[in-house]
Design brief:
The structure is a single chain. This protein has helices at 2-46, 65-74, 81-91, 110-119, 135-144, 174-194, 205-218, 225-238, 245-253, 265-269, 292-299, 326-366; strands at 55-59, 100-104, 126-129, 164-167, 308-311, 320-323. It has 2 domains: 25-122, Endolytic murein transglycosylase (Dna Ligase, domain 1, 2-Layer Sandwich); 135-304, no CATH class. By secondary structure, it is mainly alpha-helical. The longest helix is centred in the N-terminal third of the chain and has 45 residues, at 2-46. Helix 6 (174-194) packs parallel to helix 11, helix 7 crosses helix 11 (292-299) and helix 8 (225-238) crosses helix 11 (292-299). Strands 1-2 form a two-stranded antiparallel ribbon. Strand 5 and strand 6 (320-323) form a beta hairpin. It is found in: Cell inner membrane. Belongs to the transglycosylase MltG family. Functions as a peptidoglycan terminase that cleaves nascent peptidoglycan strands endolytically to terminate their elongation. One of its GO terms (biological process) is cell wall organization. It is an enzyme of class 4 (lyase).
Length: 374
């Protein structure tokens, strides 16, 4: 009897051990499976990606991480969108993707891609309009950008574009970029006009814009703008003609080309709506698109009594020399002509020396072998 009881106890004890062993085995297998799964997911997430060359990926505005993951897989940037979105959202601190175009290097891992889309900087596409360009030049540049779409039907009014860099996304229309430029000028002009000096001889924001365009074309030295603006303001107050050479040039070219030569005496004497040697006050429109600094220079010109200025040297970067009286101005003009003549003679001498050196080199290269001096 006791033997049977002992046998039953042993069987019960062995059965419990078997159950425990089975559970332990299942636990080990589960851990192995889970560990293997984690290892697989991690290797997929951190391992090299399938791309073999640098490519650009676009995140559309409003795309979620899940939507972005699906598009990445569709386009061959990643191998598994589920791992990218679910595993990535748990290991990355910031898993909110930015809108824009991103450069994805060849072989980039899911981890690298997610960091780029959430923490990197999108590629920048922009159209840049330099200060002093005409609307014709600006439209030429906008039309030349093949990432933009559509067309601009006609030239906008001169001076209606604020120079600067304007971002866009590839596929945006050219008109939308132009609209940004014109809105920026409208806002800048209103703001500067509102804060202008109270006693300026200007009757409207439009007149301030016209004068700013003349100041912009007269000097390429930023620090000179308020000084040059004050000369023209002084002339307007005195009832003098502005006598600005760039206005003559605009009357000849309409802002659609460069003159590439000096102004002729006949052109100075020719009456056009833009020739401020022949007309009183301001021309009918701006002659270029002035930058914000030129607008501010006109709104807040320097306080001085200068009525004249002429280039200081042969290079525009040297700026101008100013005068209060015409005799003093004539002396400055005479000095400028001497400097210009000297610079022209120097340039001609250097060109001649370069020509002679080139001829000597060509003669030496053309000489039969053995006849050149050793």
């Amino acid at each position: 009897m006791n033997d049977r009881r002992n046998k039953r106890r042993r069987r019960s004890g062995n059965g419990l051990i078997d159950v425990l062993n089975g559970l332990l085995t299942l636990l080990v297998i589960g851990l192995v499976v889970i560990g293997g799964g984690v290892f697989f997911v991690a290797s997929q997430y951190y391992g090299d990606g399938p791309t073999r060359e640098d490519r650009v990926f676009r995140v559309e505005s409003g795309n979620t991480l899940s939507t972005t993951a699906g598009r990445l897989e569709e386009q061959g940037f990643i191998s598994n969108s589920f791992i990218f979105s679910q595993f990535g959202s748990r290991v990355e601190e910031r898993a909110v993707v930015k809108a824009g175009d991103f450069n994805i290097p060849a072989g980039a891992s899911m981890s690298d891609i997610l960091k780029e889309l959430t923490q990197g900087n999108p590629l920048r596409y922009a159209v840049t309009i330099p200060e002093g360009w005409t609307v014709w030049q600006a439209i030429q540049r906008i039309n030349a950008d093949d990432r933009l779409t559509g067309s601009i039907g006609q030239l906008p009014p001169e001076g209606s574009i604020l120079p600067g860099s304007y971002d866009y996304m590839p596929g945006d229309t050219r008109q939308s970029v132009l609209d940004k430029m014109q809105l920026a000028m409208t806002e800048a002009l209103a703001e500067v006009w509102e804060g202008r000096e109270p006693d300026l001889p200007l009757e409207s924001p439009a007149e301030m814009l016209i004068l700013a365009s003349i100041v912009e074309k007269e000097t390429g030295v930023a620090s000179e703008r308020p000084q040059v603006a004050a000369v023209f303001v002084n002339r307007l107050r005195e009832g003098m003609r502005l006598q600005s050479d760039p206005t003559i040039i605009y009357g000849i070219t309409n802002g659609q080309s460069t003159l590439d030569r000096g102004i002729r005496r006949s052109e100075i004497e020719q009456a056009t709506p833009y020739n401020t040697y022949q007309i009183d006050r301001l021309p009918p429109t701006p002659i270029a698109n002035p930058g914000i600094d030129a607008l501010r220079a006109v709104a807040h010109p320097d306080s001085h009594d200068y009525l004249y200025f002429v280039a200081k040297g042969a290079s525009p970067s040297e700026g101008h020399v100013f005068a209060e009286t015409y005799p003093e101005h004539q002396q400055n003009v005479a000095r400028y002509r001497e400097i210009a003549a000297e610079a022209a003679a120097q340039a001609e001498s250097e060109a001649e020396a370069a020509r002679q050196a080139l001829e000597a080199q060509e003669a030496e290269e053309a000489a039969p072998e053995g006849e050149t001096q050793q």
